[in-house]
Specification:
By secondary structure, this protein is of the alpha+beta class. Helices cover about 35% and strands about 30% of the residues. It has six helices and 14 strands. Strands 2, 3, 4, 5, 6, 11 and 12 form a seven-stranded antiparallel beta sheet that branches. Strands 1-14-13-7-8 form a five-stranded antiparallel beta sheet. A hairpin with a 2-residue loop joins strand 9 (about 145-150) and strand 10 (about 150-155). Helix 1 runs antiparallel to helix 3 and helix 5 packs antiparallel against helix 6. It is globular and about 50 Å long.
Amino acid sequence: MNVAYLCDRGLNREENEDSILVDEVEKLFIVADGMGGHNKGAVASTIVVDEFRKTITFLEQEKLESFDEKGVKKALEKQLNLQVEKATKSIYAYASKNIIDGTMGSTIVGLYKLPIFEKWVVFHLGDSRVYHLSDNTLTQLTLDHLGSMTLNSVLSKAIGNFEAMPLELNYFNPKEGDLFLLCSDGISDYCHNDELLELALKYRYSLPLMCQYLKGLIYERGAKDNLSLIVIKVGKV
């Protein structure tokens, strides 16, 4: 497995409200895009990443080899949604302690390789995305959780100081050499899927160059949002 990533403030925002997790040993990868401004978004995305990092501790304690595939999926789904609840409580507590009015929260998109059955799970809430490159085809694996308010799109699902929502989970069996791309909307809003496909094909053998070139491209286009990207090349399965 080969991995490259970036998490950058961009050109317009005063601070970086994105947080990422890259754990190549446990094969857990997360992008969280905070919302709320004035440090609230940065705090929320950090809380989300820290809570989901603890998923690994639970999985290490479980004897997953004694489960069938259906049992493993059920246990994982239960634990991941428990982390949503814990992150929600932590954000509520922070907002109450600091007397924060309004919304404070974060999107989440994650990718995790199950230690058995050779499956990868994608989980998400919000508009951060996962793409899958296989056989020269780029597929968006997540659908943005957006509602409509007049002419603007607003998040319909996230984790924050509001009611906890269940994650959307999907399972995949990638091939050796396939790519997964996780990104915040600071990437996807500035780069169409066709452009991502072109870049992924061009730089699939040099993932750090892909990150570097994509950052430069988005900077040329204004980079008004924070931008986060994790690219994973699947090893032998």
